[in-house]
């Protein structure tokens, strides 16, 4: 499994655990909903800055999104 696949699975899992829609997650992270969708499908390569924003919104360490 490549790093994009790990990121997409972890994002989806943490978002579901939080009970958030993609729209709510995107709002909390300060990014567009379609970008969240693309990330969860493994269609985008986010910058480290975006990974940090996603992690902060989910209250996890950025490394947890890539494990």
TrEMBL record:
Domain HTH cro/C1-type: 11-65
Record flagged with keyword Transcription: yes
Keyword terms: DNA-binding, Transcription, Transcription regulation
Pfam family, one: HTH_3
GO cellular component: cytosol
A GO term, aspect molecular function: DNA binding
Protein name, per record: Helix-turn-helix transcriptional regulator
Organism whose genome encodes this protein: Flavisphingopyxis soli
PANTHER family: HTH-TYPE TRANSCRIPTIONAL REGULATOR, HTH-TYPE TRANSCRIPTIONAL REGULATOR SUTR
């Amino acid at each position: 499994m490549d790093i994009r696949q790990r990121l997409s699975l972890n994002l989806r899992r943490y978002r579901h655990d939080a009970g958030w829609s993609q729209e709510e997650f995107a709002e909390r992270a300060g990014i567009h909903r379609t970008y969240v969708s693309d990330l969860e499908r493994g269609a985008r390569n986010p910058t480290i800055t975006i990974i940090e924003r996603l992690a902060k919104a989910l209250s996890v360490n950025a490394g947890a999104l890539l494990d």
